[in-house]
Each structure stands twice: as C-alpha cells, then as structure tokens.
Specification:
ATP-binding; 5-stranded parallel beta sheet; Helicase, Ruva Protein, domain 3; 18 helices; Regulatory protein, Fis family; AAA+_ATPase; Rossmann fold; alpha/beta; ATP binding; elongated; Sig_transdc_resp-reg_receiver; about 45% helix
Amino acid sequence: MANPIQRVLLIEDTESLAKVYKAYLRDSAVVVEHVTTFADAKVKLANQLPSLVLLDLNLPDHDGIDILRMLHNSGCTVPVIVITAHGSVETAVEAMRLGAYDFVSKPVEARRLQVTVNNALSFYALNRLVDKYETQHTRAGFHGFVGASTPMQAVYQMIERSADSRATVFVLGESGTGKEVCAEALHQAGSRQGQAFVPLNCAAIPKELVESELFGHIKGAFTGAQKDRQGCIQAADKGTLFLDEICEMELDLQAKLLRCLQSGKVQPVGSDTLIDVDVRIICASNRDPWKEVEAGRFREDLYYRLHVVPITLPPLRRRGDDVLLLAKRFLQQYGSEEGKRFVGFSRQAEWTLSKFGWPGNVRQLQNVMRQLAVIHPGGKVAQEDLPAPLSQVVCEPPRDTPAQFQWSQPGSDSSTPPPAPVEEAGAPQSLADIERQAIEDAITRCEGNITQAASLLEVSPSTIYRKMQVWQQA
C-alpha cells in the first residue's frame, strides 16, 4: 500500500529559496504549501495542521521562533524543522526547548533536506501510533491507585484478571506501597463489590486476641467474653476478607485458618457449632512468604493454599514519573484541607523528588506532602522548601561523577569512550552541534537520567530520545 501524500507547510520569505526547497522535495510523497509571513502562517495553521513545518526564523513581520512557541503552548506535536542562516546559542537552546525536531543551516543541500523531512515524517507517524496505543491502554489511576508507569499498568491488569475469581490473592510489596489499596481494588473490581470488605492486620492485634478477632467467640469462652461476638471471617461472608501482615500469625492459628479455608466453615472460640461462610481471601505481607516457610515460621500447606495469585507492588523508586504525579495529587489534596492553593514544584524541586529513593514508599511521600501543606504558605514549592530528608539531596551531581550514559557511534567499541572531537580554532559551531552539546552536557550532569536531563532543559524526554535516534542514524 502506497504511503499517503502528506502536507508540508514551508514558511520562507525568500521566493527563490522556496522554489529550491520545493524542487528538492518534488520526488517525496509530500505536497508543499508556501507562505512568506508570520500572519499567513498563523492563518494556515489555524485552518488545518500540516504533517510538517519547515520554518525560517527571519520573517518580515515577526520572529519565526514565535511560531514554535505558539505550537508548543498549544500542545501541538507537529514536527518543525528550523532553517536558518543566522542563529545564536540562546536561539538554538530556545528552539530546542520549544520542541524543534531539527536545525538545517543555509545553504541547504538537497539530500540533507530530503533525509531530514523523511525522518521527521516517519518518526512522528510512529509516535502517533504509540500515542494512540498508550491512550487506549494506559491509565493514570485505577480503583484508588494513582500512577501511569509501566509497572503499575501490569498491576492494574493483574487486578482486573483476578478480581472475579474465587482464588486467593497474595499481595507482596515493601511497606508503604499500597497493599491494602490493592486489596480494596480487587474487591471493588470484582462481583463482590456490593458486599463487605473486612480488613484485619494480624500484626496490630495482641496474639491472644487474634483468634477471637478472626473466628469470633461465644459468651463465656474466656475471661472477659461477656457476650457472643462475630469474627472477621463471618463478618466478611459473601464479601472479601483482607489479612494484612499474615506472616505475623502464630503457627497454631495458621493451622486453624487452613482448616477453615479448606472446609468453608468457621468455628467461634468456645463453640462446637460450625458456620458456613463464603469469603474471598486476600492476604498481604512485606516479607517473602516462601522464606518464612523455609525458616519454619509459616506453614507450607497454608502457603500453597494462599499463594495462588501473587501480585507484587513495585516500590515508589521504580515507578518513574509516578512520583511527581502522586506528589502533586497529595499536595493539592492536603493543601485544600489546610485552606491553601499550590501550583506545583520548581524544576529543581521536581528533580529532587525524582532523585530521592523513597524508602518509605507512597506512605513517606504522603507524609512529606502533608508537612509541606502545613508549613508552606502556598503557591509554587521551591527546592529550598522541601523538608528533610529531601533537603539533604544534592541538587546537582558532582562534576567528577562519571556519567552512566555514554554516547556510542555505530561500529565503535562501547567499552571505550570516543575521543573528543578536535575543533578548528575559531570555527563556529552549527546550531545542531550546539543543541547536541547542550543535551549531552545535561545528560552527563544528571548521571545518564534522561527524565532529569529533560527537566533541566525544560523539554520532554521524548524530545531527547528523538534526537538520540537521529544522531545514531546519521
């Protein structure tokens, strides 16, 4: 199937150059529409977005960089190739920040323009397919969870697939990752959502009372049992019982729980009566249950009964941009409770939030955001406003810190860094070289972290990845 004809908007005030560019692209599958002024370009863009923009920065009625700014501020992703004979470092950095796909210096060679245009059109066509797929398959939240990262998408899928099953789910993860949120999501996403959801933390109840809390008791079963009391299992009948920190349960009680799960009957403490129950069991632990089995602290037969569908929640440090998504959500929520309005974080503060390891996971992030909501007057949160331990994070890595990311050329030995290019004394750098140097410096300063480098340059990570792909193909 032939590729469809694509529209290219050429914004160039010199008629003779416009004719040359059109001739260069005559054999490409594009239709070139030409305008000579900022005003005409604005009208064209307002009526119908092209597939690509070729932009001269020196226009008779306006600065061409404002075309880039207008597209950037509107959220438009149309690729823009800047063609210029004059430019400074500031102009190059500004154009890059505003999302320019590439720079082409005048005079323009035919092959250079053809390759750049074809690469831009192909790359953005692929991006549109990826964006369409991600829009259909990526969720920013799910039944109480907040997060759009790849690890969380896998968690959402596991919850959906197992929500309607009667099989026991074992939720694993570090403290503070949201295991109870996961249990509630399983309950809400399944057919038992209209019934009771009963949580029981096995580590928060005195050992001598766990059996009564779990199975209930009758009057006079033990000292202080002044009336019959229904246990959590019976209270969750037709619904869901969530046993948090189940690895803290005593071995003798584990045997009674196993008997209950196998028979579907509960026997209150002090009673000879067996009561039929229909309960979906979800359990959780921040320990590895199999290691507890090997250590003799958890029954192997109970492990096989409970560890049917394991769901492992990722720690916050492995959830990428979810850190900022959660931080902004919590700050808005707690700020509203304190009667304050927040407008987000500075770039340096965002860098620190992303860089911090969050050993306490989401629970620790909540704590920090609540502190900020109380002590900060509102508005934008700066780097110096962040409380300890975030205030101890070095905002920029030391100059002598080796970069984790190294550029490699096709066919080169990746284990040996390429020699620095020798520049002719006094020779001016092209805008493309300036742009590449700025990106490489940012990546080095951020120890190879593309997301942080993009934040430092005030561009999106996809812009840097796009540039890297072009450099590798060159």
